[in-house]
Amino acid sequence: MTATLIWILVALLAIGLYLSWTAGRLDRLHARIDAARAALDAQLLRRASVAQEVATSGILDPAASIVLYEAAHAARQAEEEQREVAESELSQALRAVFADPRQVEVVREAPGGDEAARELTEAARRVPMARRFHNDAVGAARRLREHRKVRWFRLAGHAPFPLAFEMDDEPPAALADRAA
């Protein structure tokens, strides 16, 4: 009788430790999502800021400046539920303005333009990486949250279900070529 109780207590302790470890892992994944989202937000803000800087510098032709400025401004001012669309529109505006590699050269030849072109190239390159890190963390948390043990024992607590950040983040070819 005592041996059976000891084995039952050992089994319950092992199950409790396993569930605690799983809950801790899920908590670490949620923290990783928060950190990745903060990094993504920083990169998106940097890209929009550099795009606005280039648009207001007087280097580009007026039509390109207006298109780029309005898209960057909309991306910076977008509410959370409209953010993905606004950031995608900024990506499209960057591709439209810098579709021609000569446009990048025009920016580079202007005073301070070399630095602006370099910053814009880096920003356009870093946004897809930051989004990928964020979406990878979201995917890992989703896969863990789909397990029965997590649902049955409510190991996720009251944490909201993580959502991926889906946007068009393809950089302009002229800027992507410069990054290589």
Automatic annotation (TrEMBL):
Q: Which UniProt keywords apply?
A: Coiled coil, Membrane, Transmembrane, Transmembrane helix
Instruction: Kindly list any coiled-coil regions of this protein.
Output: 69-96
Q: Does Membrane show up as a keyword for this record?
A: yes
In which domain of life is the source organism classified?
Bacteria
Q: Which residues cross the membrane?
A: 6-24
Q: Which InterPro entries match?
A: LemA-like_dom_sf
Name of protein: LemA family protein
Q: Which organism is it from?
A: Streptomyces lasalocidi (Streptomyces lasaliensis)
